[in-house]
Amino acid sequence: MPTVAPLDLEGHCVAAVFLGDVPHFALADGTIHRFDNGQKTAQANDGLLAAFHDAANDRLITGGEDGKVFSITAGGNVQELASAGKKWITSVTAGPQGAIAYASGKTAFVRFADGKTKEFAHPRSVEGLAFSPKGMRFGVARYNGATLHFPAAEGKPVELEWAGAHTGIAFSPDGAFLVTTMQENALHGWKLADGKHMRMSGYPGKVKSLSW
């Protein structure tokens, strides 16, 4: 029979994930709690704002008010990956070949596995980030649509327009579609091959998350 083990967490839980077979809970104060032969903790950000489960590398990526990006692995090892100075890190994600992306204000950053970092400026705040499952391409959710960047190559980004505040972003597993959550009670999508729109509305409340 399955059992339920209560875990007393004093604070808001930003993310709950399994790293290996160990449950981890990332709190807003930056502490990472894990239930591994007893309750154990590690300290990441000084004020945690964003977290992403990098399943391919079995780690948790976090960003926060201290302007830093951390990696946390199943053994409780905490490693600083990047810093934006005193700017808040409001969104993080992970992609292929050990790359990560993070956002602060109107700027998105991509850090490659070799430590090299590229910046991508936008006219409005970056609200969400996601890497495509195929190739080194990532998407940015922003006001009035989404932007696709190709950080490993030079060239102009692809702009996908739709009026409104777009707050989150996700690629389909085959990389053929891109969908954003919105400030209104709706999702919006694009078929990337031809840019055709997919309008999804009528939800009883604002969509907080989505999965394929």
What does this structure look like?
- With 212 residues, this protein is mostly beta strands.
- The protein has 2 domains: 1-85; 90-207, YVTN repeat-like/Quinoprotein amine dehydrogenase (Methylamine Dehydrogenase, Chain H, 7 Propeller).
- The protein is built from no helices and 18 strands.
- Strands 13-14-15-16-17-18 form a 6-stranded antiparallel beta sheet, with no helix packed on it.
- Strand 5 and strand 6 (59-64) form a beta hairpin.
- The protein is globular.
- The two termini are 30 Å apart.
- The mean pLDDT is 94.
Name of the CATH class of the largest domain: Mainly Beta
How helical, in percent, are the residues? under 10%
The radius of gyration over CA amounts to 17 Å
User: How many β-strand runs?
Assistant: 18
Based on secondary structure, the structural category is mainly beta
CATH superfamily of the largest domain: YVTN repeat-like/Quinoprotein amine dehydrogenase
Shape: globular
